[in-house]
Design a protein that fits this description.
The protein is of the alpha+beta class and about 280 residues long. The chain folds into three domains: about 90 residues, SH3 type barrels; about 50 residues; about 110 residues, no CATH class. The protein has six helices and twelve strands. A hairpin with a 2-residue loop joins strand 8 and strand 9. Helix 4 packs across helix 5. It is elongated. The chain starts with 9 loop residues before the first strand and ends with a helix. The N terminus is likely disordered.
């Protein structure tokens, strides 16, 4: 015996009747989802690719066959605005209410927030949700107050076709490319420092920059440029965004010398903290 597999995984959010798909119309005549009104967010079931639309006008059409008859009976069609300013006049039988999911982020008249509950209220075709604002406060929000699903700025610009001209894009690309080169693994601080370097100074800096956690004692002979070697390494780490705060501990007699060397040769400003400064 082969049992029948139930493929109806979707339900009407109003009457819970089983539906074939997300874009199937519920034809239960007692279903609240049959009613529509101004400001409703809807899907056009014959063309779901149009995306989310909003009812902007209710059009009342008389059912009388001649102009002599009294127009006592009317039926409604709805003017729906979709993205890219596409407007369609649609019969209600081809419209489906769009219902936000719980925890879905939306942009609204009350600001950006999330739908806080799977339950919603509907009265005369107007739907409202429990809305949780970014500041943690809850309120009831009508779908007419909801502008759209929340999109990051870049996603919104792409969907709206707001793209920069190719020339501007190229300039930004070059800027990021140069920044990438500047913060890469190669030694780059020597290009913007007032230095006449010796080979052994470059070698020391290169060895330091290759290690993840360098610890080294610079113990060259007097006059071979230990201050310059330290300055090159400091500048290199700053260029790679690996050093934000630097402390140099030196004898009191060399304070001014080190401060001058760092400023003059590497354009790095150091503040002197001695006993007098700390006591202040």
């Amino acid at each position: 015996m082969v049992s029948k597999i139930d493929l109806l995984k979707h339900r009407c959010p109003f009457c819970r009747k089983e539906l074939e798909s997300k874009y199937s119309k519920c034809f239960n005549i007692y279903c609240q989802g049959q009613k529509f009104n101004m400001g409703n967010l809807v899907i056009y079931r014959l063309n779901p690719d149009l995306g989310l639309g909003r009812i902007i006008k209710v059009i009342e059409i008389p059912t009388s066959k001649s102009l002599d008859d009294d127009d006592t009976r009317l039926f409604s069609k709805f003017k729906v605005l979709f993205k890219n300013n596409i407007v369609k006049i649609i019969h209600p039988i081809d419209l489906i209410h769009f219902i936000f999911d719980v925890d879905e982020k939306v942009d609204s008249k009350q600001g950006i927030g999330i739908i806080n509950s799977k339950d919603f209220l509907i009265q005369d075709g107007k739907i409202s949700y429990e809305f949780l604002k970014e500041n943690g406060k809850k309120s009831q929000i009508y779908e007419s107050e909801v502008y759209s699903k929340y999109e990051p700025k870049i996603g919104k610009q792409i969907s709206q076709g707001k793209l920069d001209p190719p020339r501007q894009f190229l300039i930004k690309y070059w800027a990021y490319l140069f920044h990438s080169y500047y913060t890469s693994y190669q030694i780059k601080c020597i290009t913007n420092s007032r230095l006449s370097l010796m080979p052994h100074q470059i070698n020391v800096t290169h060895r330091l920059s290759e290690e993840f956690f360098p610890r080294i004692i610079l113990a060259d002979e007097v006059g071979l440029g230990k201050t310059i070697e330290a300055g090159i390494y400091i500048k290199e780490m700053m260029a790679r965004n690996l050093a934000e705060r630097i402390i140099i501990i030196v004898p009191a007699s060399l304070l001014k010398q080190w401060q001058f060397e760092m400023k003059n040769k590497f354009n790095i400003n150091f503040t002197i903290y001695d006993g007098k400064k700390i006591n202040e």
